[in-house]
């Protein structure tokens, strides 16, 4: 389903005329729809306490025995919620994560020696100590930022053409646009939000295939799932 098809399903529900084109249009409602589609696509993809399998990508860092810092992948968005770095030199133990930069600096100043090693992210680099030996590797999964597919099959970070498609579930995107549009316009949206949350819980369950627990009307994965839906007045 293209993003134009999504808009055409959204339009009658929110009181708009069914559009024949949106992304190149200067009509105010169409501009708002385009902006909301990109915002909701980002929220669904990255703002949950969940990592979509469709967006996971494997990275491999290869050491040279000298370099401590490795550039993040070009399509990197964020690490997985429970990210682990697996070194080939120690396949049964992951590297220790140090999210606190002062702690990481302290380890360097104190020349603390670790059996396995540690890692942190600073700027656009992953730093690993001790340095990765020549030809040794470190592997990890991350979430890519390319959540839209163009008509030619190439991936990109957002919608900018009517023929673009969402790499995640289009129905979920449609329901998200509907409830947020109504909230933005001061209309009743509670039922639409519930419909969206039900669909979101179902998609997470289908994506993960895990046991589920009841939360309100919805069923969500056994890991807690937060819905950070900021309502724009």
Order of helices and strands: HHEEEEEHEEEEEEHHEE
- How big a fraction of the residues is strand? 15-25%
* Sequence stretches where pLDDT stays below 50 over 5 or more residues: 212-226
Percent helix range: 25-40%
Radius of gyration: 21 Å
Q: What is the number of helical segments per DSSP (H or I, 4+ residues)?
A: 5
The count of DSSP E runs of length 2 or more, i.e. the number of strands, is: 13
What average pLDDT do the residues reach?
A: 90
Summarize the structure.
The protein contains five helices and 13 strands. The chain is an alpha+beta fold and 233 residues long. Strands 1, 3, 4 and 8 form a four-stranded antiparallel beta sheet that branches. Strands 2-7-6-5 form a four-stranded mixed beta sheet, with no helix packed on it. Strands 10-9-11 form a three-stranded antiparallel beta sheet, with no helix packed on it.
């Amino acid at each position: 389903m293209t993003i134009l098809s999504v808009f055409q399903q959204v339009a009658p529900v929110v009181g708009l005329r069914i559009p024949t084109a949106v992304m190149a249009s200067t009509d105010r409602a169409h501009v708002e729809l385009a902006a909301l589609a990109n915002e909701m696509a980002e929220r669904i993809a990255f703002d949950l306490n969940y990592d979509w399998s469709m967006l996971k990508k494997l990275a491999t860092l290869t050491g040279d025995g000298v370099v401590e810092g490795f550039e993040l992948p070009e399509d990197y968005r964020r690490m997985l919620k429970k990210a682990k770095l697996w070194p080939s030199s120690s396949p049964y133990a992951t590297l220790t994560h140090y999210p606190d930069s002062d702690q990481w600096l302290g380890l360097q100043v104190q020349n603390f020696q670790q059996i396995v090693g540690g890692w942190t992210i600073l700027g656009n680099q992953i730093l690993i100590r001790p340095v990765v030996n020549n030809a040794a590797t470190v592997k990890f999964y991350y979430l890519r930022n390319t959540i839209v597919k163009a008509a030619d099959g190439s991936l990109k970070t957002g919608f900018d053409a009517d023929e673009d498609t969402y790499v995640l579930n289009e129905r979920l995107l449609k329901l998200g646009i509907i409830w947020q549009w109504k909230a933005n316009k001061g209309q009743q949206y509670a039922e639409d939000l519930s419909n969206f949350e039900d669909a979101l819980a179902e998609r997470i369950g289908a994506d993960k295939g895990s046991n589920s627990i009841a939360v309100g009307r919805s069923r969500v994965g056994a890991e807690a799932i937060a819905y950070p839906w900021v309502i724009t007045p």
